[in-house]
Fold:
Amino acid sequence: MRTSFRVAVTGAVVAATVLAAPVAQATPAGPGVSGRVIARTTVGNTDYVLREVTIPPGQATGWHYHDGPLYGVVKQGTLSHYDSTCAQDGEYTVGEAIQEPAGPGYVHIGRNLGTTPLVLEVLYVLPHGAPFSEDAPNPGCPFE
Structure:
C-alpha cells in the first residue's frame, strides 16, 4: 500500500512538472499543436516518455530534430513527413508506425495537410533531461 501510494504520488508530481515545464518546440510549431505526457520513466541515463501529440488541420510541428530516437504510431488523421531536402519522406495513416533517428543530421517537419486533427502516440528515448525536440531553422523549404 505504501509503495503504490509513493509511486502514484511520484507519477503525479512528474506529470505535473512535465506539463507545467516549457517544452522545446520546433521553429515554430503551428497554432494549436499540443502534447500530453501519458507516461514517463528514467532508466540509467535514459528518459522514456510516451506522449500524445495533436496537430490541428493545416498545422505543423515546425523544423526540429531529437536528441534520441523517436517511435510513433498514427492514432488519427494522416502525417505528412518531410526531411531537410524538402522532400516528403513519408506519409503515415491510422495504425502506421514511424521511426525517427536521433541527431541534428535528421532535421525534419511533420505536417497535417488533412481536414481532421492528426493524433500521434510517440515514444521518446532521450538522454536524461533532454527536451522532446531541438529547434532547427527552415532548411530553405517553401513551407513551414
